[in-house]
Amino acid sequence: MSLVQKIPCDSPIVGIQSLTAIDFPGKIAGVFFTRGCPWKCRYCQNPSLSESDLKSSLSRNDIEEFLRSRKEFLDGIVISGGEPTIHSSLCDLLAWVRDYGYSTAIHTNGGFPEMLRCILKKRLVDYIAMDIKAPPAAYDRVTQVHNTGIAVSRSIKIILSSNIDYEFRTTYHPDILSEKELIDTMRAISCAGAKRYFLQRFRTKGVMDQELVQGGDVVTIPQAAINEAQMLFEEFEVR
Ligand code: SF4
Questions:
Q1: Is beta strand 103-108 parallel, antiparallel or unpaired with respect to 76-80?
Q2: pTM of the model
């Protein structure tokens, strides 16, 4: 089968970042942004992607041109969003990107464990970065959608039993998570077996929630949480 035949017909990609040195550890990568996410986190930096429709998808020619022309400069492609795992064409997309010789990574909210299981079973990604938004009891409050914590717990187990390189990360804003909830979040993911974990400062760029934006980019991560994380994880950073 030729590469052209393998390109997914219903491309979920609505944007491309041509270069990143921070989203795929050890790789210089491009980022493909997929449309749509059913969750409603207040600190979402890409809310416009949740509302993108099929008409805003990049054409297969545009994507193919990017993959061909960047082959000499990029090691990998990150599929981010929105939420990539809501798209049934994700496996084909990842396989297609890998056929060009790129390493692949996905960024996910972990809300769709069956797709995740499929991707990992077929070894279609080299790296997975998953958000851990809250301790289990507070998950639905942060995502503003019912039953998200249950799916996330399943995704955590799938990732940790896959032997695929990973990171878990939590974005912190004091209006969304209390200090205790942040520490409970870290304890829960550590208890599940996670070794690599990052705390991310809230950033205003792209965020639509004006109450959060008004406070600016200056969010201090509680020192008690940093101290706890340093004890819990083999690899930890604030970023
Ligand atoms: S899960 Fe991610 S993409 Fe979806 S609303 Fe939350 S922050 Fe935005």
A1: parallel
A2: 0.93
